[in-house]
Amino acid sequence: MAELKAQNVSVVYETARGALTALRDVSVSVRSGEIVVALGASGCGKSTLLSVLAGFQTPTSGTVAKDDVVVTGPDASRGVVFQDDALMPWLNVIENVSLGLRLRGAGRAERVARAAEVLELVKLGGFEQHRLNEISGGMRQRVGLARALAADPAFLLMDEPLGALDALTRERMQSLLLEVWNKTSTGVFLITHSVEEAVLLATELLILSPRPGRVVARHRLDFSRRYAQGESLRSIRSDPAFIQIHLELLDQLVRETEGA
Known about the structure:
Belongs to the ABC transporter superfamily. The protein is of the alpha/beta class. 40% of the residues lie in helices and 25% in strands.
């Protein structure tokens, strides 16, 4: 079982006004087949934590390791999906999905076969040759997800990937993400501002305090696994247990923010 682990991570930025601590002593572990969701107010360091896990940023103190090997930079074992899909507008769908494979020197036949496979996984089979201006925003997000999956990563790191979508498209993308996760057993680290989304998706939910970000609560949840076992999203969302934890977490976030 693969594991991506941050231990006692702190991140301090030097600014013109002095040192700014974004994260303080944060520990998190993401394992294969888990969805770890970080939830907290704007500015609590969620994106900084994802950047550290991705290897884009070195922590000021603490360590990040994949399977006990210290992370020193980004690599193909950790796919990243951003809120802005960051696609190349001059490339078509399959060219965008296979871009990372091309940059690593994979042959054309291998690239096309793998890209077609993951496009089927995210339900975009038949759209391989479409230009980006010919598909919807939700479809573009699926292309971004397919691109991250093309390298068969052990982990997906997702920075508010559904935040810009309308409510209906967001719900469909939540379903798709859970289906992909269930089929691949990829470990997922996702950040969001939506309490409902966090409760729905997380197998482990982390609550971060306002800056400096610290993990102030951890919750083990099973709603995502219930969906993977065949229960509908409507049934899950109407479950009194789902409603209760949703309201409790809203109250906790309000208290954390007011106490900052």
